[in-house]
């Protein structure tokens, strides 16, 4: 406990939002139920008119296990409330669709995950939402694009996969100056090192598939923000369109939160150490980890957060062919398109996660044929370093 008697953030991950049944279990219960029983027809009618804080109607609307998870993680991140979703992209889609309508304008960073780009450029544009893309690292570009007719600003605090860092306080100040909301995707920053709330963001999206689950098992997402928005437009959209999280997933996430800080802090230390070991390697064009000195925005990244997540990137000299020889020579690190797993994972974004982007757009974003996104796991860091060094020798 702090001097004020409040739970610290780490303690919040273990105890926040706990709801116990009449048996007072230690480990949170999982309620695998679709519906709920009412004592009388009158009580059923009353609940459909107004749902209380500890009352539920249907699992698509909410569930005791899901509510525990929502309260625990949103509280940890500093937000009033949260809505648990079926996946990270369900959260992105749900937040954007629930907050926007035809005629609205969105200003977004152009360095976004491929699926986020699809929602913005293909789906929202189809329904009459104007989408303006800017270079997220250029404050002047944000200043010019965010005008009085802007409804929402959307960005990744650290971009996937090139790890660009946005001056979030500046963007929030500009957006709020014209009355626009700021929605931040914090997948790369991680819940542990998230600075969205501190910098003034109105809403935050967490892909709980990543660091919260952290062990390659469950899909999930969380939309965090003011209670008025979360239990208003967000909940209304999500419950009617079926994007809610499964109660069993919520339960596994609750248990995973107990070790979140231990896992993510260990992985982040490993990522920084790996960047140190690879910086200046003769077979690499560049190494990028936001708070490492080799990153062009390391000063901004270090000012915004104590660490920059569990992922680093490096560009292999020789393009795709050399990069594939490197990937195929790895012994410990797995080739996959996920990140934030307990196992270290290497991804070639140009041919997998961002394959659908035109070559011109890949080049503009820095997704080169030699780019590798490396998600650092929980193995011994020296073993990961050794695996990468031997694979580089195989080129």
Account of the 3D structure:
The protein has 395 residues and is α/β, with parallel strands linked by helices. It folds into two domains: 9-257, Type I PLP-dependent aspartate aminotransferase-like (Major domain) (Aspartate Aminotransferase, domain 2); 261-393, Aspartate Aminotransferase, domain 1 (Alpha-Beta Complex), CATH 3.90.1150. 40% of the residues lie in helices and 14% in strands. It has 15 helices and twelve strands. The strands form two sheets. A seven-stranded mixed sheet has the order 1-7-6-5-4-2-3, sandwiched between helices. Strands 8-9-12-11-10 form a five-stranded mixed sheet. The N and C termini lie far apart (53 Å).
CATH superfamily of the largest domain: Type I PLP-dependent aspartate aminotransferase-like (Major domain)
Low-pLDDT stretches: none
Q: Total strand count, please? A: 12
Strand order of the largest sheet: 1-7-6-5-4-2-3
Give the C-alpha Rg: 21 Å
What is the name of the CATH topology of the largest domain?
A: Aspartate Aminotransferase, domain 2
Summarize the structure.
This protein is of the alpha/beta class and 395 residues long. It is 40% helix and 14% strand. Helix 1 runs antiparallel to helix 3 (64-77), helix 11 packs parallel to helix 15 (381-393) and helix 13 (319-328) packs across helix 15.
SSE map:
Layout: H1 9-15, H2 41-49, H3 64-77, E1 81-85, H4 88-99, E2 105-109, H5 114-126, E3 130-134, H6 139-145, E4 152-156, H7 168-177, E5 181-185, H8 196-199, E6 203-206, E7 221-225, H9 227-241, H10 247-257, H11 260-278, E8 284-288, H12 298-304, E9 311-316, H13 319-328, E10 334-335, E11 345-347, H14 359-365, E12 371-375, H15 381-393
Parallel strand pairs: 2-3, 2-4, 4-5, 5-6, 10-11
Antiparallel strand pairs: 1-7, 6-7, 8-9, 9-12, 11-12
Helix pairs in contact: 1-3, 3-10, 4-5, 4-9, 11-15, 13-15
């Amino acid at each position: 406990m702090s001097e004020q008697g409040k739970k610290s953030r780490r303690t919040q991950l273990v105890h926040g939002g706990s709801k116990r049944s009449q048996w007072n279990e230690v480990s949170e219960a999982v309620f695998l139920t679709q519906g709920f029983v009412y004592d009388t027809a009158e009580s059923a009618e009353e609940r459909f008119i107004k749902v209380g804080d500890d009352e539920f109607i249907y699992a698509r609307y909410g569930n005791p296990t899901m509510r525990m998870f929502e309260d625990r993680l949103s509280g940890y991140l500093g937000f009033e409330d949260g809505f648990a979703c079926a996946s990270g992209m369900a959260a992105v889609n749900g937040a954007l669709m629930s907050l926007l309508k035809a005629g609205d304008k969105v200003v977004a960073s152009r360095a976004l995950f491929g699926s986020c780009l699809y929602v913005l450029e293909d789906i929202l544009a189809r329904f009459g939402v104007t989408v303006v893309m800017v270079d997220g690292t250029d404050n002047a570009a944000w200043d010019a694009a965010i005008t009085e007719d802007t409804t929402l600003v959307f960005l990744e605090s650290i971009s996937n996969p090139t790890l660009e860092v946005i001056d979030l306080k500046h963007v929030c100040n500009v957006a709020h100056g014209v009355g626009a909301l700021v929605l931040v995707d914090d997948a790369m920053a991680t819940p542990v090192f998230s600075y969205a709330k501190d910098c003034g963001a109105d809403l935050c999206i967490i892909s709980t598939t990543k660091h919260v689950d952290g062990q390659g098992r469950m899909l999930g997402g969380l939309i965090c923000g003011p209670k008025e928005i979360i239990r208003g437009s967000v909940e209304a959209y999500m419950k009617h369109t079926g994007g809610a999280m499964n109660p069993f997933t919520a339960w596994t996430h609750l248990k995973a939160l107990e070790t979140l800080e231990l896992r993510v802090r260990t992985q982040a230390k490993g990522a920084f150490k790996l960047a140190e070991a690879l910086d200046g390697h003769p077979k690499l064009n560049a190494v990028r980890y936001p708070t490492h000195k080799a990153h062009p925005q390391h000063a901004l990244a270090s000012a915004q957060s104590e660490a920059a997540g569990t992922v680093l990137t490096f560009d292999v000299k020789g393009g795709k062919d050399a990069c594939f020889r490197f990937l195929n020579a790895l012994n410990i690190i797995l080739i996959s398109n996920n990140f934030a797993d307990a196992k270290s994972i290497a991804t070639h974004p140009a041919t997998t996660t961002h394959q659908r982007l035109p070559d011109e757009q890949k080049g503009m974003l820095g997704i080169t044929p030699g780019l590798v996104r490396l998600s650092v796991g929980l193995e011994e860091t020296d073993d990961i370093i050794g695996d990468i060094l031997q694979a580089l020798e195989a080129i």
